[in-house]
Amino acid sequence: xxxxxxxxxxxxxxxxxxxxxxxxxxxxxxxxxxxxxxxxxxxxxxxxxxxxxxxxxxxxxxxxxxxxxxxxxxxxxxxxxxxxxxxxxxxxxxxxxxxxxxxxxxxxxxxxxxxxxxxxxxxxxxxxxxxxxxxxxxxxxxxxxxxxxxxxxx
Length: 154
Known about the structure:
The chain has about 150 residues and is mainly beta. It has one helix at about 1-15, and strands at about 25-35, 35-45, 50-55, 60-75, 80-95, 105-115, 125-130, 130-135, 140, 145-154.
């Protein structure tokens, strides 16, 4: 129970960071398919960059992650908007698989990806890679962080 409370408190920090002014009213929520499934929420902040918070299940167990992303335009001439992004953040969760020490996991993440925002419908589709280094409960790199995401824009 104590570990669950620490994980919840850790997650509230991410959403506190995300309480900045939006740019063009763009926020997104959607599903990220990876080595499991995650719910993803993004909020743009005042300089055009954004924060993303995800929660879900993966091959280790339950995960909660927060990433700051620098967003840049890609000059591709289509009906929608192409961007690429990169950034870093923190991850936590409960590891419960047979290949790792069980318990609360805490680590650092990196992320890079690209996305396409449709102009005629309020959706964004993205493909990214989010590796991580976890130092609790054991020191380990996680290289399996590729994901495909579909988000609703509001």
